[in-house]
Structure formats: C-alpha cells, structure tokens
Design a protein that fits this description.
single chain, 481 residues, mainly beta, Jelly Rolls, five-stranded antiparallel sheet, binds calcium ion
Length: 481
C-alpha cells in the first residue's frame, strides 16, 4: 500500500519546545503492509483478593481497564499545546538538505545521526502534531533523542467517529531497519498511550486509521524521560512486568521516572500457593493490588501484607505509583517485595558466647545467637521474612524477638540472656582445648529453654546459663568433673 497517494489535504501544526537540529539525511521508509499490533489490553480477572482476615480488598479506585490517565502536568501541558495552535505549518516541515553535516552540538559524540523521513512530520519531544484531515489516512510522525530514553507516546483528542491506533517504531540507524516497538489500539475514539524504553536515535510514530468521518482530528506526540529504572516500561496491565512465584521470590528496586509513571507487575503464584506476601518500602510511593476490578491501596509502607488468592496459582496485578501529594524524584527508589510465605528454616545454628568445646551442651553467659536461612515451600529464600521467632526462657523471664532477615533470606540474630540473679551452684568442668580445670558457676536452674521457628512453632532446646567461671589449675583432669 502506498499511503502517500491517499493524502489529499493535511493541515499540520507542529509545536516545538526545543528547536529541531539540522537534518543530515532524508530516509524513505518502507511501505507499511499488514502492521502487527501486539498491544491489546488484557482483561484482568475481576476476582477479589482477600486480606489476612479473609475480607475482600475493595476500593473506589479507578477502573483497571483504563491505561495511564493524562493527569500529570507534563502530559496536560502537551495536550494544551496541541489544542491551542499558534502557527500553521501547512505541510512544510520536511525541508531536505542532503549532504549537510549534523550540527547537533548538544548531543554526545556517540549520538546517532538525526534524519528526516519522506512524508513524515517531525516533532520535538515534549510536543506533538495536530492533524485535521478530510479522509482517514495514515500519518507518519518522527522525533529524535540523542540518548536512550523512556518514551511516553500519546494519540489524543480524536474527533467523534474517529478511531486511530498508535504504532511506535525505532529506526535502526545501523541496519536501516524499522523495528516495531509496540502500540495501542483502543476502540472508538479513546485516547491511546504507549510507553517503551528506546535506544538513542530516530523514532517513528504512525497514526493508523481504523475509522474516520471528516473532519478527522487528533493529536499525536511524545514525552521523553531519562531517569527510568530497569523495569520499564510497565505503565498498565497490558505492559505489566511478569514475575513468577514458582521460580523465585522478588526484591524489586524501582523509581518513578515521571509523574505519569506506574510500575505494574503481574505476579503468578506457584501452583500450590494461594497467598502472596508483599511489602513496599518507600515514603513517596503507593502500592496497590487489583481486586474486584479496581486498584486497592495496600497497607503501610515497610510492613508485610498477606494477600489471599481465590485459587492456588492465581495471578494478580500489583502497581506502584507516586504517592499523592509527593513531588516525583526519580532518584528516590522504592523497594517492592513479592514472595511466597516462609515455610522452613535451613542451615540453622544456635551459638552461645562461651567458647564452643569447653563444656558440654550450649553454654551461654550473656548472648545466644541464632543463624539460618528462611525458605518458602519451594526451597527459595524468603527476603525480609518477618515471622522468624526466637524465644528463650530463664528464671528471670522470657525474651522473645523477631529475627532480622535480610534480602537473601538469611538471619543472624542475638538475644541477650537476663543477667544471673539469686541462687546458683557450681561444677568443675574440664577445658579440653586448654587442658585446664574450671570452676563454673551456673544459674540456679541448669535447664533453660530456647525455641526458634516460624510463627510460634519451635522445638524446645536446653541451654546452660553460666554466671561466672574461675580457673582451678591445681585440679587434674581425674578430679575435674
Ligand atoms: Ca483506537
Ligand atoms: Ca518506574
Ligand atoms: Ca513504569
């Protein structure tokens, strides 16, 4: 299909927030036939997610089927500029200067060349092109970035009866290939949004007509962001980053690269798992879960929330957004944990602070240290598990603490034993390491108990509380016991 023959009248107004650099070379793009669309919006389950008490999580948030809402200042500015044209470029933006050198001195030395494209209308990042057409026809739009960016593309304000879709391509300056990056194909005249991380270079945005009755009006344009995290782009459920509870547990470090940024994750539970532990650490981000067709806020930052799925192996969408009322700073990271529950402790040890090997059993003066790794039912480490309970008892009371578990599921946590008080008794103990006899003073009950486990579960184990020890070098091994 040669779409050029379809062009009858185009009234184009292009708005530049920064001047376009000199165009070094004009490229003729290949004809577009049967363009693949891969960005259909997924239908999310309308099932409910339950909290720990089994109560469905519900809220009055926005519907899941909307993509990013144009609610940021940046997008609103873009739309506003497009709505209030100040000049009429009248189909003349493609001035060709073959052979002229690139003069983009602001770009790094390694920046790819910037091109113009035959019958393609340029726009600067942060702006867009406004079209008013007499017939439904494909329009080509191009822009450029000297560095890799996350590109937020939009196709907005389609007139009644118009249905255009948005297609985004990267022009590969090394291979001359036009690489399809994705797009958006909402029905009717609904706005189209598509975000994608782009290499440095030239970007082509097509507005592809599906229906239209003159006058056909719409705006197409893009914003660019440099401070994106390695999870991008994942702005909505159709672009969700997949994570699989059967494979691993997750600690995601991310940021909000702009006020529109939404980081959406599709978590699929392992086949036998019907609970998911989630935790967001951040003072400037909000965590939500899709439940019953809306986004529902989850809990307090820094604490684990247990979500109960309707069925084992179900999938849920989780979304991190800039918190309402905060100023977006891409340099402030959040930490999102998604994991199976704790199921077992591996490689554990309990170590007293009396040199091991001196005496029989676990002997403690003031400190007892618990070590180990928390794993889920599949044997994967559970990051930041909050349910490893350590308990010890003595005549002076019970000490119970929750172990501090790190991102790798490991813990090394020391409990302080209540100091010796009241009565006691002494025994002679041979120190095999140093071949010498000690007179050891024990707390009056020699059989103190420690337990450890997940939740309150734990085997009872004895330890011996040493209050003091004095050398008795004159007593031989035969008498030292
Ligand atoms: Ca559409
Ligand atoms: Ca992000
Ligand atoms: Ca995102």
């Amino acid at each position: 299909m040669n779409y050029l023959s379809m062009v009858r009248q185009i009234l184009l107004t292009s708005f530049f927030t920064v001047p376009l650099v000199t165009l070094a070379e004009e490229i003729t793009l290949p004809a577009l036939d049967e363009i693949p669309l891969s960005s259909t919006v997924e239908e999310v389950s309308t099932g409910y997610v339950m909290d720990q008490a089994g109560v469905p999580l519900t809220g009055s948030g926005e519907s899941l089927r909307t993509t990013i809402a144009p609610d940021s200042g940046e997008l609103l500015k873009l739309i506003q500029r497009a709505r209030t044209p100040s000049a009429d470029a009248s189909d003349t933006p493609n001035t060709v200067h073959p052979g002229r050198p690139v003069s983009n001195l602001m770009a790094p030395m390694s920046a790819p060349p910037q091109y113009s494209f035959t019958d393609c209308y340029p726009f600067a990042l942060g702006s867009g092109n406004t079209f008013n057409l007499n017939s439904a026809q494909l329009t080509c739009n191009n822009t450029y970035s000297a560095t890799p960016i996350k590109l937020d593309t939009v196709l907005l304000d389609q007139s009644v009866g118009t249905n255009y879709d948005l297609l985004v391509y990267f022009y590969n300056h090394d291979t001359d290939a036009l690489e399809f990056m994705g797009g958006s194909n909402n029905s009717g005249n609904a706005d189209e949004f598509f975000s994608v991380v782009m290499p440095a270079g030239n970007y082509i945005l097509y507005a592809l007509p599906q229906a239209g009755v003159a006058p056909i009006e719409f705006v197409i344009g893009a914003l660019g962001w440099s401070n994106y995290d390695n999870q991008e782009a994942n702005e909505n459920i159709s672009q969700a980053t997949p994570v699989n509870g059967a494979s691993s547990n997750y600690v995601i470090i991310g940021n909000a690269d702009n006020p529109n940024d939404r980081d959406v994750f599709l978590y699929t539970a392992a086949p036998a798992q019907n609970t998911v532990h989630v935790r967001l650490n951040s003072g400037v981000h909000t965590l939500q879960v899709a439940s019953g067709g809306v986004w529902v806020d989850i809990g307090v930052s820094g604490s684990i929330t247990t979500l109960t799925l309707a069925n084992p192996g179900d999938s849920i969408y989780l979304r991190v957004s800039p918190a309402v009322g905060t100023t977006v700073n891409p340099l402030i990271n959040y930490e999102l944990i998604m994991s199976n529950p704790s199921a077992a402790l591996l490689n554990y040890s309990v170590v007293g602070d009396v040199q091991p090997g001196w005496f029989a059993g676990t002997e403690v003066n003031t400190d007892l240290t618990f070590n180990g790794t928390v794993v889920d039912a599949l044997g994967n480490p559970v990051p930041y598990a909050d349910d490893v309970i350590l308990v010890l008892t003595s005549e002076d009371g019970v000490v119970a603490e929750v172990a501090n578990v790190d991102a790798s599921g490991n813990y090394s946590h020391t409990l302080s034993v209540p100091a010796c008080s009241g009565g006691g008794f002494t025994e002679l103990r041979w120190d095999y390491a140093n071949s010498i006899c000690w007179e050891v003073g024990y707390h009056n009950d020699p059989n103190h108990i420690y337990t450890f486990g997940i939740g309150t579960v734990g085997a009872e184990v004895r330890y011996h509380h040493i209050c003091n020890a004095n050398l008795r070098p004159s007593i031989p091994l035969s008498n030292c016991n």
